[in-house]
Amino acid sequence: MLKKTLLFVLVVLLLLVCVLFVKTYTTESKQLRTSGERKTFSIRYDALQHLQSAIRIPTVSYDGHINTDTAGFLAVHRLFDSVYPLTTQRLEKTVINSFSLIYRWKGKSSAAKPSILYAHLDVVPIETVNKSEWTHAPFSGDTAEGMVWGRGTLDDKGSAIAMLESTEALLKKGFTPENDIYLVFGHDEEIGGNLGAGEVAKFFLSKGIKTRFNLDEGGMCTSKMVPFVDKPVMLIGTAEKGYMTLNISVKIKGGHSSKPEKETSTGVLVDALQKINAHPFPAQLSPVLADFVDYVGPEMKMPARLLFTNRWLFAPIIIKAYQNVGGEGNAVTRTTSSITILEAGVKDNLIPGEAKAKVNFRILTGQTCVGVLKEIKDVVNDERVVIEVAENSFDPSPITSTSTFGFKTTQAVCGEVFPDVLVSPFLMIGGTDSKHFEKVSESLIRCMPVRMSKEQLRTIHGVNERIGIHDFMEMIAFYEQMMKHL
User: Fold this and answer.
1) Does some domain include residue 33?
2) How far is the C-alpha of 446 from the C-alpha of 116, rounded, in Å?
3) Which of the residues are catalytic?
4) Could you point out which of 81, 203, 214, 470 has its C-alpha 20 to 30 Å from the C-alpha of 133?
5) What is the CA radius of gyration of the chain?
6) What is the extent of the structural domain holding 70?
């Protein structure tokens, strides 16, 4: 009997191994066929100068102080009018809320719905403590080491200038798109986009304009950032996580620090925060991460290829592997929480009567703000702790299918401009202005078509932000080709 059992187990294992290897080697690649060789594009020096000019104009969005750099936004508008005369003359321009721009490029036909190419003009402030660490001044627009340096080169003026360069070049060639294209430039994305993209979306809805495609910033062309994959990978964001900040406060009468009561506001608050930290949300293979696995799995080396092409069996191992990668890998598998602000006390010998904190949550697809709030309240389970939702919370975005016009078109253009690069859907762990267009567009794609190293990625919102000159030329070529497809 034992021999028969062992034999049965052995047969089952052999069959399982056969199934795994058959699946591994018969899973078809989801990549388009290309030459596999990187293209080279001539440097457009006038385009470089235009990017430099835009970078030199500070257009900073500050929390709580909308449009502090008002003059900067108006200066950028004048720059566009000056260096893109055909775009200014031939496209219908609408200004929204004084600083956001819509350019309508009327197509030959209205048979298909129009499309939106989107970028934002505002940038984050420069931290005083880090200003001396910039190799080139943050708003210098200097060119050095094959790069253009300055705040906004990557996030997101580079995209805006590339779109306008493409438009102007095509207009010079006498090109007219098949269907309407809207170039949209928001002005407050860095503080939520409510007055910029939010109002633009309301404008579209008020006019009854629905689009089939909205292309915004997001994923980029990564190099050596996807484990077990040798080629660069262009990440196309098909969804983004939700966002919620909880204001957590405790009020308990304070007093002199020489005679503390058994419990204080700070002590109770710290205990609540410890409970939250000790309660990570469960990790899971979300639908978007599953799409990513399906696109990169067949391109991986063994044994990773075996695992990724058989996620039906190895999903727990894949999830664990992502968690081990670090912060970003962990973030794509679960709802995360971060204690971002602590506030209590005014004097070292005075026990504060109130202690406050802000905890920021990035919510995974499939969960909601309401559900996360309930779970956190259950975890803290203390009536003395007041937990309230701050402004600007929103649930995870809908998922754009890889079968949509938006994804397929983006993949096709990537194949034409970046033939040496793989393409994959992925989950945006940060937020974009795409959230404002959920009722406007059939498919929301978040992709910044630029090559970026891991070190460059860290410069976004950080120090020494810069874009490669040749990479910027590729970006212009991408938008030009995209406009031809649209």
Assistant:
1) no
2) 12
3) 122, 189
4) 470
5) 25
6) 45-226+399-485
Sign of CA dihedral 193, 197, 199, 201: negative
CATH code: domain of residue 69: 3.40.630.10
Beta-bridge partners for 186 = 120
Instruction: Yes or no: say if 359 and 246 are a contact pair by the CB < 8 Å rule.
Output: yes
Q: What is the mean pLDDT of each run of 10 residues along the chain (486 residues)?
A: 74 82 90 92 96 97 69 96 98 96 94 94 90 94 96 95 98 96 96 94 97 95 86 96 96 84 91 95 93 94 92 90 78 93 91 94 95 96 95 92 96 96 94 95 96 91 95 98 95
> What is the rounded CA–CA span in Å between residue 292 and residue 333?
12
Looking at the fold, whether 212 and 278 belong to one and the same domain comes out as no
Question: Is 385 domain-assigned?
Answer: yes
The CATH code of the domain that includes 370 is 3.30.70.360
Regarding whether 369 and 277 lie in a shared domain, the answer is yes
CA distance 35 to 386: 59
Closest CA relative to residue 172, chosen from 84, 92, 49: 84
pTM for the model:
0.92
Of how many residues is the chain composed? Answer: 486
